[in-house]
Amino acid sequence: MPFLVDSHCHLASLTFEGSKGPKSLAEALTRARACGVTHMLSVACTIEDYEHMMNVIKPFDGIYNSCGIHPLNLEEAPNWTEEELKKCLTDDKCIALGETGLDYFYAENTRDMQLDSFARQIDLANDVKKPLIIHARAAHHDTVSLMREHNARECGGVMHCFCDEVEMARECLDLGFYISFSGIATFKAADNVREVIKYVPLDRMMVETDCPYLAPVPVRGVDNEPAFVRYTLEFIADFKGVSPLELAKTTSQNFQDCFKVQLSEPSTAGLMDKDVSTYKIDSIYNKGWPY
Question: Could you give phi then psi for residue 72, rounded to 5 degrees?
């Protein structure tokens, strides 16, 4: 049975307030397993966020974690130190440093602070030998320049929720990074993302939800959840002309290769034995898989 991995989510940010959505993390994970999503990487954006997240996800298996200082969280965590962040990275299931990076779309006013923070985190990732999870928005050239200058190739990692252009994808692939796609791939206006999907080879690709944000078509307008990574996977599989099972297998292997983990059979194994082309998630919004 192939695994299906949600390679980037924010489980501690799920609110469980939607009338049709899950009412607890346990229910969200059960819904994910029912869709074949057996593993996920839960991401923290500050040290404080990491401590809270760890308390939330601790009772559950199949969840890896990461910690970094997000460029949009710098104003609330301006004085973070390498020592504090390094402590978070010592947990056995903490498999990456991130998310980190640059965002000039929402926070150009903190550009200098972002550049310093990102550079320091690349250096720390190389020091602790953990791959990076990089967020980049409207900051193509500075992102790639810092990756080169601080030798991000040494630790490697993934460009998460990629929404830039083919040229940036090419430069990141040349640096040994993977490219991860979210529900944005399904959005009508995201032609640039689909051009990148066309360009990126399967063996350098991952899929993610970035939940609770960016719910894909056909569940736009609700809180995203790990189960919905399957919509994104099936859309990309159709777009690339491969079967969903093949893409699930490949992206899961890419996750293992990038983060240097070996995915084990989860306690709820076997649920994806059903044919993904016909399997309907009747309990989730009464909508089946459209692809």
Answer: -85, 0
Identify which of 141, 144, 139 has the alpha carbon closest to the alpha carbon of residue 103: 139
Structure tokens of 288?
């089946």
Q: Is 37 helix (H, G, I), strand (E, B) or coil?
A: strand
Supply 130's token pair: 């953990």
Backbone angles phi, psi at 90, to 5 degrees: -85, -15
Q: Which of 242, 221, 244 is nearest to 232 (CA)?
A: 244
Alpha helical stretches, state H, the chain: 25-34, 47-57, 82-88, 104-107, 111-128, 140-149, 166-174, 191-199, 229-240, 244-259
- Other C-beta atoms lying within 10 Å of the C-beta of residue 84: 15
Beta bridge partners of 135: 101
Q: How many helices (H) and strands (E) does the chain have?
A: 10, 10
Q: Are 291 and 56 in contact (CB under 8 A)?
A: no
| Residue 162 one-letter amino acid | F
- Name the token pair of 100: 């980190």
Are 223 and 196 in contact by the 8 Å Cβ rule? The answer is no
Q: How many CB atoms lie within 10 A of CB 255?
A: 26
Distance CA 40, CA 5 (A): 5
**Residue 202 exposed, middle or buried by CB count within 10 Å (0-12, 13-18, 19+):** middle
Check: CB of residue 213 under 8 Å from CB of residue 230: no
Mean pLDDT by 10 residues, the chain (291 residues): 86 88 89 88 97 95 96 94 96 95 97 98 98 98 98 98 98 98 97 98 98 93 92 95 93 97 66 38 38 24
What the block records as the tokens of 9 is 């989510």
Task: With H, G, I as helix, E, B as strand and everything else as coil, classify residue 136.
Answer: strand
Rounded-to-integer distance, Cα 258 and Cα 203, Å: 11
